[in-house]
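During the reporting period the student researcher (J.K.) took over the structure-prediction task from the postdoctoral fellow and processed the backlog of single-chain submissions. One of the processed entries is reproduced below for the supervisory committee.
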Amino acid sequence: MLKSLRNFLSRRTIAYKVRNRTMNMFSSYENLLTIREKSEQKRKVENRPHEVLYFHKVDDPYSHLTIQYIDKLMSAYDILLKPVLVGEENPEALYERSLYDHHCIRDVQRIAPFYDINFSSDSYPDKESVDLANSILCSVDDKDFVEVAKKVSDGLWRKNITVLEELSKIYNSTDTFVKNKIQSGNNTRDESGYYFGSAFYYEKEHYWGVDRLNHLELRLNELGLNRSSSNEFICSLNSLAPDIINSDKKVNLHYYPSLNSPYTFVSIQRVRELREKYPVNLITRPVLPMLMRMMTIPDFKAKYIISDAAREGRKYGHEMKSIYSPIGKPARLAYSLFPIIDQSGKGFEYIELLLNASFQEGINIGDLDFLKNLVESLDLNWEVIKKDLNTKKWKKVLNDNCDDMYSGNCWGVPSFKITNSDGSDPFYIWGQDRIWLLKEEIHKRCN
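J.K. obtained the following structure tokens:
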């Protein structure tokens, strides 16, 4: 991506027309298909194999999960997998580093059992162990990388230094070689347009960890690379929660959406379905978009977020169509009406309609005629509701919501909190990727 696109989502850096056009370009399925077709043509002309890069970071909890599936991926598909050892994440792509690190450990602890993977560590390995792990893997040939990396990862996260020391008798590298190889890996990752470990890269697209492995499989299947006739994914959740739960027990489900978040848009339909099929008291608690909380998004991350959210939307039958980003005044105007609408019992419906307008209908949600029609579609009195338009009452509401979200070690959206009906025993999670985990937690509490 060109540097001129940096912070293209920012409310002040570029005109809204360019911002909207760029967002629509990245989310377009037609553009995606065109890029894929051109990439495949170029690959054939250059007579290259179907090479999939895998970025592995030894002290990344998600890499511990992902490395367990590499053998299955190579067996199932006619690909050449190239492991790329990487180090620290691109700092431009990280927010709230301490919260992020804690989140990764907690998240992997929670989801690993559903993939039949052991991960019981509650802390990161020490620097000496990480250095030793990198020294081992830097001297391993590509053909042996996965086998050795699984042993290294197991020893590293179990804090079993003996395993690493035994491996280091066979595989070891000088400090200079390790430094250069990891820097080379970081350069390869960065040049591909990505920023974390535990990710795959194939012909212009990235697939992060076990959460996106199915998207990579779908693409490889479309290319006819499946070695068998089976359409089963190699990476599937062992979920326990049923589609519908009927229970006398009820839990509170706090939902923290943002009006400018593609991932929030992707989540909204499934949250509504959750309310309809599970015994929850849904409490909608919107927060300001990250860009309006003075955070910045580098161009490469913005591109990935929008394109990834778009494919997730297609996966769940809630596709982005025409986008009009509400950053700035449109969002402030829309938020100003939320408290009074929420008091009328229509807070969730209001947020859902606003998101659909921004991410499907390409509507400026700050337009007063639009807001009037939307309010009236909710069977509310515009003359009453509009008295709060552009007032400041909403700011404390959203700030309090954000503070509560942060208290649960969540800083991005959408985030969620489950509590018992009396408000006790809070369970926070971040991301539309974890709606399945919400179901598991509700099932456990209401069973």
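The committee noted the following: The chain has two domains: 35-222, 251-446.
J.K. will present the remaining backlog at the next meeting.
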